[in-house]
Specification:
Helices cover about 30% and strands about 15% of the residues. Strand 7 and strand 8 form a beta hairpin. The protein is built from 7 helices and 10 strands. The longest helix has 11 residues. It is α/β, with parallel strands linked by helices. Helix 4 packs parallel to helix 5.
Length: about 220
């Protein structure tokens, strides 16, 4: 089974479900997911030379359910550009699109409009939190998947310390709009488990073999 995903990171993905003998059905015990998407970043660059045919093969052998290929499809190879997603949906509304976002594309100096979010301003969405505004913005461009950074911590001036960029509120709001949430690039199992408990539908990782064994 092969499904084309178009990423705001201007990647093409091929989703191969149950693609290797090691791949079995994933059933969770701590939430309602029936399938957890383990995406091999560039084929699993933590284990092999990235973005090569051997890396893609080993990604599947290691149990990845999606190969994240990093294939640029624009002339300037721009990344995280939501305008690409809008264009793809205009050409074919059946194309599955994933809106990537991180601290560099979400936050702008002096309240300027981010060049990556297709002219959208996060503060123009009702929120009430930034996390929910991000999900609402992704829904506004008809994204099927929201793919935020899963490792960045937002500094806080309070004594409570930093907060995660990807929050339970973001995930819940995305689910309310029918989007899946697949954070990136998550290599620590403590972070993967926390995102899983928060309701993430999968993760992008450099180590699909380790994450898959954990997921089982």
């Amino acid at each position: 089974m092969c499904i084309i995903f178009v990423y705001a990171l201007v990647f093409t993905e091929i989703s191969l479900v149950y693609a290797s003998p090691s791949q079995g059905p994933f059933r969770t015990v701590s939430n309602n997911h029936q399938f957890y998407d383990v995406q091999a970043h560039r084929g699993g660059r933590g284990n092999v030379v990235k973005s090569t045919l051997p890396s893609f093969a080993w990604g599947l052998i290691d149990g990845a359910t999606t190969l994240e290929l990093d294939n640029g499809i624009t002339t300037n190879l721009s990344r995280f550009d939501w305008r690409t997603l809008i264009s793809m949906k205009t050409l074919d509304d059946k194309v599955i699109t994933s809106a990537l976002i991180d601290e560099d594309t979400a936050f702008t100096p002096r309240g300027s409009t981010s060049p990556w979010l297709a002219g959208l301003r996060l503060e123009s969405f009702p929120g009430p939190s930034l996390s929910e505004q991000i999900a609402q913005a992704a829904h506004a461009i008809q994204a099927d998947i929201l793919s935020p950074t899963g490792i960045f911590l937002i500094p806080s001036s309070s004594h409570e310390g930093s907060s995660h960029f990807t929050t339970p509120e973001m995930i819940s709001e995305a689910h309310r709009f029918g989007m899946k949430v697949v954070p990136w690039t998550v290599n620590g199992l403590n972070c993967a488990e926390e995102l899983f408990k928060d309701g993430a539908d999968g993760i992008i990782t450099d180590y699909p073999n380790i994450v898959r064994q954990w997921a089982k």
